[in-house]
Design goal:
Elements lengths: L2 H18 L1 H8 L6 E6 L6 H5 L6 E6 L13 H12 L4 E7 L3 H7 L8 H6 L4 H9 L8 H17 L3 H8 L4 E7 L6 E5 L4 E4 L1
Parallel strand pairs: 1-2, 1-3, 3-4
Antiparallel strand pairs: 4-5, 5-6
Helix pairs in contact: 4-9, 7-8
Amino acid sequence: MSLEEIIAGVRAFQRDVFPENRELFAELAAGQSPDALMITCSDSRVDPDLLTQSRPGQLFVLRNAGNLVPPYDRHVGGVTATIEFAVVGLRVPNIIVCGHSGCGAMVGLLNPATLRGMPRVGQWLEHAAVVRESLAEAGQLDAHDALERAVAANVIVQLGHLQTHPSVADAIAAGRVALHGWVYDVTSGEVTAYDAERQQFVPL
């Protein structure tokens, strides 16, 4: 898609879509009350609104390479601030961490040589280093399904990191928020969800 096509899309939105949803946008102009914070990958093949068939205002979306959540510390970054705003300011009742098949970030995590010339990406992916280490310890780095395993394991790791954030921990303790881990298969459209009791991903 060229820039001209992107601009044409904006014009089509203004001409056709916005007028048909004028009341919705007028309501949203007064404020937002999303149903979930969705933390997912920046990958252009992942469209949270399309995947969940959500309307504007229903999802508060945080996207980054690898759908990562750095463990909480005193350094304030965009991920930390966004999570805090969603949980404290917007009081979202759900947080979804959604990984996806064929994730380039996980490819880089498992194969650091592919990140040559991208040192900052390599540093960022260290927030998922435990995934690579656990696969290495299990002798699965070269397995045919290593990437699939990494994608799923990363979702679980990031759910753990989320709980180190004071705003999230407090909301969980108060029963105000629930955490969910999903994996979206780009090829099939299937979405699986992590079942903590069974310690496995099951169809959503």
